[in-house]
Amino acid sequence: MIKHFPVLVIIIPLLLALIAPVAGRINRIYSWVIAFLATLFSFIIAAILLYQVMYSGTISYWMGGWEPPWGIEYVIDYFSAFVLAIVAFLAWLVTIFARKSVAAEIEEKKLPAFYGVYLLFIVGLMGMIVTGDIFNLYVFLEISSLTAYALVAMGKSRRAPLAGFRYLVIGTVGATFILLGIGYLYIATGTLNMADLGARLPGLFNSKLVITAFAFFAIGFSIKIALFPLHTWLPDAYTYAPSAVSALMASTGTKVAAYGFIRILFTVFGVRVFLEQWVSVPHFLIAVSSVAILMGSILAIAQTNIKKMLAYSSISQIGYIILGVALMNPTGLQGGLLHILNHAFMKCALFMSVGCITYKTGITSVADLKGLGFKQPYAMAAFTVAALSMIGIPLTVGFVSKWYLAMGSLENAMWYLIPVILISSILMLVYFWRVIDNIYFKAGKPIAEVEVSDAPASMLIPTVVVAALCLVFGTLAFIPVSITEKAALLLLG
Amino acid sequence: MDVVTSAMPLYAILISLVTVGLVLARPQKPVFREFCTVASAIVKLLIVLSMLPWIRQGAIIKYHLLTVLPGLEIVLRVDALGMVFALTASFLWLATSFYTIGYMRSHYEEDYANDRSVDRFFAFFLIAMASAIGTAFAGNLFTLYIFYEILTLCTYPLVAYDKTPEALYNAQKYLAHLLGTSLLFFLPAIFLTYYYTGTLDFSTSGIMSGNAPDSVLAITFILFIAGIAKAALMPFHAWLPAAMVAPTPVSALLHAVAVVKAGVFTFIRVILFIFGADLLKELNPGYYLAYFAAFTIIAASLIALRQDNLKRRLAYSTISQLSYTILGVALLTPSGVTGSVLHLVIHAFGKITLFFAAGAIYIVTGKTEISQMDGIGKQMPFTMAAFTIASLSMISLPPAGGFISKWYLSMGTIEAGQLALLAVLAISSLLNAAYFLPIVYRAFLKPTLAANGQQVNIAKIKEAPVFMVGALMVTSAAILCFFFEPGVFLDLARMIVAAM
């Protein structure tokens, strides 16, 4: 049984995803119950897998018993176990949050279908993480993308379908680039297994086919992770999606795409080619991600809609992840990997606390939040903690990421990246403090007279838990670091 | 040097945080929160005092709290320098807690019992004290930085307390200066320090020596100086006058003692325990810093002369006086450092007395401008007597404690052979006299005029509530005591110098 865990973590939620809409026809609550059970199950398995990997090293699962590189291989190593645990955990928490939040934002008759698509989205993400086969990765990428388009389009706003459509068009272009890249690599090497590709590609790096394949991967994944300036689908998608979907997508969607990109960079192509032959690639990525870090924050300042502000902030945070990866040294890469965890938690807490506001008041504009800090104390406290974490106050997770990124920059003798990182912190201080000032310190006019109370416990508890974890993993940072340390060394060979 | 492992420094921090819980747990119970605040201030002072014998024997108390990351540890460490700051802060906190009760009761009247924001006011005040003590007892640069940032964040609600647009604007200015500089300059300085030395621990001989090229040392030094804006060295001083919108107890404790002193304390820590006196003497950047401080001393005094608002004049005076401390330690001579440490203490007592007096005047008469204060000494003789003593200390005239620290600072400039800086100290004394003595003169010798120009006879003494007057009498008495018996603080300062 235990040896089948790597595939069960995918299969069980996949089956339940198909059952959920059907069960919802009997009673609508069943579809949520199934989603809850599926994500809980995945989280438990993911936690066990993480424990096993930390204890006994990489787990390789051969689908149907076919030996790789002929069969499809699922690989759970330090890196995939780490990301899988994050995604499964947050998916479970967001599902708890979703019950009331989604019921308030989506028509009742659509609920069973929603939970079916929702589960498929999670399955797609988890599949991308566990697979060791590059074509299988593409399949799961498409599953998560197609469902994501649908989830965005289900938003309450009239602009949601348009945002979903825009995401569909741009996302499909990205996916097509990735598919072409996979095809070219297959032509060049005749294999689709990532480890096998990693063994065969060295020696082919002068081939124009392989260079083109890499360029296609880089563009395709840049679209999927919303790396500036290929981010244009993201702000509208996050803004108009239902609150629970925003929380889930912002915390896991782009992270898993980044996971795929890191896999391509380090497992398929290998770090040596970037350090020895294609040295301009890391430099280019560093330049692009620095621009992303700054532009995301600058654009966030310009926003008045709070969800859009958070969405632009995500663009800047993705820049941090790619910056750490592009430094290509153990410390910097660790910074990037830690930021996958850290940003997932921070953004999840932020979007969920905004979801709590929306649930009770329907407010979307920053200026209307006046005095809300005392009306919804728990949700706003969670928001404040996550916001301070984004700014990078010590003892929060944001500080840990910054520490590793700064040390990684210094190791590469790129001191000029430190001002980039820190100026972005200042910009975050500007736009998050504007919200904090509104919720706590500005005399409330618009809703001060209205009776507003905190959101229901089923929404508040996940929100507060994630926000609290921002502090826990910031204070006891050695816990995630003990995993990312090994993951970074593994990826850098 | 003995190293004692004890959790006492942790308790000194925790006692305030526990009190926060108590205050918030029983909202809108004025007597309860007053009792808790005073009791915790007494316990805190006792805890700090209980560590004093060890320190005077030359021991160091260390407590390892937790490891955040390999290399980034939260460590508490009590040494002579930390003790000086902690003693000052916890003693003045006790005085302030009485004063705050008196001030808040009179100023907010009915709201005092019913408004939950008063509970929060006390809570943030207590957190601020916890982080001030945490700064004093920080065992490495990382721990120091944590408490430094928490101090900024938890004082923001205190500065913005009145929630008027003006209060909010000034609070934002306060935050932008303090958090902005610490993120942009202080933090990269810590990055560089750690990257080149592999540690952030304080060491009496410094940790930088031999670890980093000269150019990096210079950059790190400049980043530290620019990053520690709490010391209000020009041009990063504008937050201090802005913070004067806060209620007076906040201005008194936080912006004459806890926040600004945390700034100069961090300066001393960085100069003596990160760079080390020997390294800096070799490289000589200290004199640049000293002249920078000298500029701030004179410029801030000149601005203070022109302020009519009493609290603003005091704020600029603080900016000027903080730079005395920086100047002293930048000289790196034994007397200079002694003077610097003593000035940290004595200025705290003097300035808190002046702020207490300003708050008492405001509570009794509603007056905030110096030009309105003619003849106020007849009405409030105790307050103004204390004000006079504190003014003498600022000018550094005997029999006030300020004379002692100025003496050592002057000796320091002579030891360093910097007579120009000695002249700066002398001119600054004159300027201090020029902006403090007219207030005393107005208060005691000018007749009070009513709006129509008629002279008003003040027959009755009308003083502030007893908690407020009591507090300022005690602090002004302490200033006099310093002159006759600098005792424990002088001993501690000598220990710091000996360890250099």
Tell me about this structure.
The complex is a heterodimer of chains A (493) and B (500). Chain A has 493 residues and is mostly helical. Chain A has a domain at 291-493. Chain A contains 19 helices and two strands. Chain A has helices at residues 5-26, 28-56, 78-105, 111-130, 134-153, 160-189, 194-200, 208-224, 234-240, 243-269, 271-276, 280-301, 306-327, 330-361, 377-391, 397-411, 417-441, 457-475, 478-491; strands at 59-62, 73-76. Chain A has a two-stranded antiparallel sheet. Chain B has a domain at 284-500. Chain B is 75% helix and 5% strand. Chain B is built from 19 helices and five strands. In chain B, helix 3 crosses helix 19 and helix 13 runs antiparallel to helix 15. Chain B starts with a strand and ends with a helix. The model of chain B has no long low-confidence stretch (mean pLDDT 85). The A-B interface holds A 388, 391-395, 400, 402-403, 406-407, 410-411, 418-419, 422-423, 425-426, 429, 433, 437, 440-443, 474-478, 481 and B 66-70, 72, 142, 145-146, 149, 153, 157, 160, 163, 168, 171-172, 175-176, 179-180, 183-184, 187-188, 191-192, 194-195.
Sheet having the most strands of chain B: 3 strands, mixed
Number of H- or I-type helical stretches of chain B: 19
SSE order of chain A, one letter for each helix or strand: HHEEHHHHHHHHHHHHHHHHH
What proportion of the residues of chain A is helical, as a percent range? over 70%
Sequence stretches where pLDDT stays below 50 over 5 or more residues of chain A: none
Note the gap between the termini of chain A.
31 Å
Oligomeric status: heterodimer
Task: Give the overall shape of chain A.
Answer: globular
Average residue-wise pLDDT of chain A: 89
Gyration radius over CA of chain A:
21 Å
Instruction: Please mark out the parts of chain B with pLDDT under 50 across 5 or more consecutive residues, or reply none.
Output: none
Order of helices and strands of chain B: EHHEEHHHHHHHHHHHHHHHEEHH
Tell me the number of helical segments of chain A per DSSP (H or I, 4 or more residues long).
Answer: 19
Counting helices, strands and paired strands, the structural category of chain A is mainly alpha
